[in-house]
Design brief:
Blueprint lengths: L2 E5 L3 H12 L3 E5 L3 H9 L3 E2 L3 H5 L4 E4 L4 H15 L5 E4 L5 H13 L3 E4 L2 E2 L2 H6 L2 E6 L2 H12 L2 E8 L3 H29 L4 H8 L7 H4 L23 H18 L4 H18 L7 H5 L5
Parallel strand pairs: 1-2, 1-4, 2-3, 4-5, 5-6, 8-9
Antiparallel strand pairs: 7-8
Helix pairs in contact: 1-2, 4-5, 8-11, 8-12, 11-12
The chain binds nicotinamide-adenine-dinucleotide.
Nicotinamide-adenine-dinucleotide (NAD) binds next to helix 1, helix 4 and helix 11.
Amino acid sequence: MATIAFIGVGNMGGGMALNLVKAGHQVRAFDLSAVALERVVAGGASAASSAVAAATGADAIITMLPAGTHVRAAYEGELFAAAASHAILIDCSTIDVATAKALGEAAATRGLAMVDAPVSGGTAAADAGTLTFMVGGPAAAFAVAQPILAQMGKAVIHAGGAGTGQAAKICNNMILGATMIATAEAFVLAEKLGLDAQTFFDIAAKASGQSWSMTSYCPVPGPVPTAPSNRDYAGGFAAALMLKDLKLACEAAQGVGATVPMGAEAQSLYQLFVNNGGAVTDFSGIIKLLRGATA
Ligand code: NAD
C-alpha cells in the first residue's frame, strides 16, 4: 500500500480520498478549508499542515483543485520541489489544456512522472468510486497512475500525451452541453406542438434524436426517474461547472484555430442561464431558460 498526498478534498476530492483510504492507502490530506479536511479525517485520512508536508516522501501526489491557476500555483510553487523522485503526480482537476500540457512538460524536465487525469461523473460517482478518468501523459506514467485511479473509478482510459486527458474531458462536455440544449429545445417545441412528453421520449429515444442527454438525463420530469429534472433540477452537475467546461473548450478551440459554433452558442446560453440565477441548478435546468423562465 502507498502513501498518497491528496491536495484539495472538496466536493469531489473528499470522496475520492476516502476511497483511497478504504483501499488501504495511507492518505495525507491538505485543503485550505478546515471543513473539507474534517470530513476526510473522520474517514481515516491524516490532516497535513501544508501541501509540502503532505507531499514530502509520498509515493503519489493527487490534486483536485478548482481551476488551472490553482493547479499551476500548487505544482510550480511547491509540489514539483517537494515531490520524491519516484512519486507519481496526478492532477484530477478540470483545467485548461495549455496549463496541463505545460505542467506535464515541466514535470518531465525535472525527471518527474505526471499525468493529467480529469474525471467524468459527479460527486455521487466520486463517493461511490465509479468515476471515469481520462488520462494524458507518457505511457510509463500512466502505468503507475492506473492502479491508483482504478481504486477511485470504474474506467481509466489513456488518451495520449500530456494535456490529452483535459482535451478529452472538454470535448466530451462540449458534446454534452450542446446535446442537452438541443434535447431541451426539442421537448419544449414538441410540447407546444401538442405532443405528450413521455410519448415524444418513447419515439425519440428509439429514433435518431437519441442521446445520453435524453435517455439518461432527460430534461423534462417523468421519462427518466433518476434525472435531476424530477427534483426541480437540484443536485447533479451544476450549470456553473458546465459553463466552466464550455469556456475551456472554446478557449482551447481558439488556441488551435478550430471552429466550434455549437460549443460557442452553448457557452452563451449557459452564461445567460448562470447570469439569471442558474449557477447551482443542474445543467439540464437550461430548459427553464428555453421556456422563458428564469432559474
Ligand atoms: P470544490 O470547490 O468543492 O473543491 C476544491 C477544493 O480545493 C476546496 O475544498 C478548496 O478549499 C480547495 N483548494 C483550493 N485551493 C487550494 C490550495 N491552494 N490548496 C489546497 N486546497 C485548495 O470543487 P469540486 O466540485 O470538488 O471540483 C474540483 C475539480 O473537479 C474542479 O476542477 C471541477 O471542475 C472538477 N469536477 C467537478 C465535478 C463536480 O460535479 N463537482 C465533476 C467533474 C469534475
